[in-house]
Amino acid sequence: MTTATPRRTGRPGSSSATPPKAPSGDPAPTTAGGPGPAVSRRPAIDWRIRFGVLSLIWGFSFLLIKVGTHGYAPFQVTFGRLFFGTAVLAVAIAVRRERLPRGLRTWGHLTVAAFILNAVPFSLFSYAELTIPSTLAGICNATSPLWGMLLSLVALSEDRPTRRRVGGLGLGFIGVLTVLGAWQGFSGLDFAGTAMALLASLSYAVGWVYVRRTLAGNGSSHLSLTGAQLFMATVQLAVVTPLFTDLPTSFPVVPLLAVVTLGSLGTGLALLIQYGLVAEVGPTTGQMVTYFVPVIATAAGVAVLSEPLHWNTPVGAVVVLVGAALTQSRKDGSPAARKSAPPAGPTPTPTPTAVPADQP
Prior knowledge:
The protein is mostly helical. It has 13 helices and no strands. The chain has helices at residues 47-68, 74-96, 104-128, 134-141, 144-155, 163-180, 191-214, 222-244, 253-281, 283-286, 293-305, 312-327, 335-338.
């Protein structure tokens, strides 16, 4: 879920910066004398620490998906993730006394967004990790900006291609071929699992386009939109899961803890942290977490799950990330340059008009 978050003019923490819009649920700072320069409240934890925590949470999410599928069906993992993530946001909404979005039209768009940005990609990643390493899933997730640029050229008229962005697109897909070992004829690659992981990444990009076109200027807060979207995705999985899976006959503790952690931390808490980051340091810095996720996912998969790592995986991942960064570059002052591009990730950067997709 993405929106056009206000951009700060200045360095994070600088007193000369224009204060961003307050995160959802927080009242906009005011001064006693009425309209005038707002006084920003400094968070208790430095934004760099929160940035690192968010990177770790989303990076380890692929490992948690893999562990969860060791004890539960993919749809069950996705349902648990959405259920616990929604529970965390529901508590935040209640504490901040937020109002849920209103209007059938808005809820209709949120239902579609929930399907494209949550239900589909979360389920695809869960199914993909039945047959592919969590390291590969994390790298496939990093291709979201590449898909996003391709779609933006067709669906968003304000995004015009530049040589740098087109070059980044080509470089990114060369990186994907490197990761997959194209020169070896994709030997040892599970095509179905890899295709599902790439489709999950594509689903995020499609969802960003849809949200920008349908929920822009909605007026509801980030938090209420996100909570509503996750709730609708949870309802969708509650309907689908019993149709395609049987009730578990046992509840393995480690996979269960993985699913609970994936939902409460990787979806619920991560989105709350991301909101605060974007509000404090702006979307450009906030979305940089995207480029740390595959690195952490790879390190976690190798160190904790003992997944194999060949030279082409890290090399290709670096090429993918460089290409993705180039596709997001803006050099001029055109409208496209002023708009904050949606990040690859999780689960998506929150903005006032849409809901974060949550990455991964």
